[in-house]
Specification:
Elements (H helix, E strand, L loop, with lengths): L4 H8 L8 E2 L13 E2 L9 E2 L6 E4 L3 E7 L15 E8 L5 E7 L23 E8 L5 E11 L2 E6 L5 E5 L17 E4 L20 E6 L6 E5 L9 E6 L13 E7 L15 E2 L3 E4 L26 E7 L2 E6 L15 E6 L4 E8 L12 E6 L5 E5 L6 E5 L4 E8 L14 E6 L5 E6 L4 E6 L4
Parallel strand pairs: 2-26
Antiparallel strand pairs: 1-22, 3-4, 4-26, 5-29, 6-7, 7-8, 8-9, 10-11, 11-12, 13-14, 14-15, 15-16, 16-18, 17-22, 19-20, 20-21, 21-22, 23-24, 24-25, 25-26, 27-28, 28-29
Pfam families: PhoX
Protein name: PhoX family protein
Amino acid sequence: MSVTRRQVLARTGVVGSQIAFVGALSELFAGTARARVHSGEHGYGPLVPDPAGLLDLPQGFRYRVLSREGEPLRSGEGTLPGNHDGMGAFRARGGRTLLVRNHENKHSARLGVPTVPELTYDPLAKGGCTALELDRHGEVLSERVAIAGTAVNCAGGQTPWGTWLTCEENEDRAGTNGYTKDHGFVFEVDGADPHRTGAVPLTALGRFQHEAIALDPRTGIVYETEDAFDRPFGLFYRFLPVSPLGGLGSLQAGGRLEAMRVPGVPDLSSIDEPGASFDRVEWVPVPDSQARQTPIRLQDFGTRGITHAQKLEGCYWGGRSVYFVSSFARSAEGSARDHYGQVWKYEPHRRRLTLVIVFGPDTDIQLPGESPDNICLAPSGGLMVCEDGDGGQHVYGLTRHGRVYALARNRQTIGTPQEPEWGEFAGVAFAPDGRTMYVNVYRPGTTFAITGPWR
C-alpha cells in the first residue's frame, strides 16, 4: 500500500529530505521493499549551504555555471533566453561534450530564442533550443541557436544516432496567439550541425501537448508522453516508424501513431499499489494524429475507451523497458485519486505495464519533495529525479536499494522576501563518461555542471 510522507518521516525520523517513495525499480533497485528516506546514510551526505547562494551540494561536490539567461550567446546570434527545461548530453569529437537545451518559452515570453535563417520554424514563436559545446575540461567552447520559432519546448529525448528530439508542449493553431503556423509537434535537432536538421516538424509523431520521448534502441519505436493538466488528461503514445533505426532524418518518413489502452483502467491515478501490473496492454490507432478538428485525447477511440493520466511528464528508456512519470494527480481536478507522483514501467516484449514507484499523498501538510518531472538513469544505477513542486526544489537520487537522498537544492529565489519561490530543476543528464551531471534551473535560467565523488 502507498503511505503518506508524514508516515514515512515519522518512522525514519528524517526531516531533511521530505519525500515518500513506495516500490522499487526492478532493473535498478534490489528487492521490492518500500523506498525509504535517508539523509546522507545511503547518499553522499547532507547538503552544504552554498556561500554564493546558488546551489547546495554534498561535501566534495562542486558546480560550475555554464551559462545564464540574459548573457550574450557566444555565437553572436543574440541573447540567451530563459525557461531552461529538458536537455540532452552527447559525445562530441575530441573528447568534447555537446549539450542541447530546451527553452520552454510561451508566446508571452520576455526573451525569445533568437531567430536564425534556416533554423526558424515560425518567426513569431519564441521557443527553441540552444546548444553548448564543452571541451574535455568542461569549459564552454561555443554556444549557439540549434532551432528557433517553436513553442513551449518542454522536454524531449535522445536518439541512438546522436540527435535530440525536442517537444512542443503546445497545440495552438496558426492564428492563435499570433502564431503563423500550427504547433504541437516534435522536431529533430542535430546539436553539432543544426543546419543538417533545420526546423522541420515530425508531423507523423502527432500534434498534441508533447512532453518527453524515449526511443527503443532495438526497434526504433518512439514512446511519447502528453502533459495535459486539465480533463481530459493526456495519453501515453507509441510511434511505429516506417524506417526503424534509419538514422538522421529517418523519422520524417512517417509511420503509425497509437495510444495506450490498459483494459479496465481508464485513469492511471486509480492504481496506487506498487507492483500492480497489467499484462494485456493494448495499442489503439489514433483516429486523427494531426488533430485537425479535435485534440487527440478528445477523439473517439471506440466503446472500450482509452487510458488517460494527469500530468504525464518524464520518459526514458532503461534495460528492456520504457519508464514514464505522472507528475501528480488531484481528485479535485478530475483524477480518480490523489498522488504526488508515479513512475510506470512498460515492457514491450511482455506487453506489461507496472506501477513501480508512488510518491505518497499527504492531505494534512504540504512539504517539499513532490511532483517528479524530468528523470534520468544514473551511470552507476538508480535514478536522478528533478522535483517540480511547491517549496524548496531539489534533485533527488534513488539508489539501487530503493533509498532516496537529496543531491542538490536550488538556492536562487524568484519570489519576494516575504513569499520566496525557487525555480524547478529540469533537464538532468550525465556526460557520456559519467563523470559530470548537467542540470538546469528553470528560472532564472541557469545550466550547471556538477562534479564530485560519484559512485
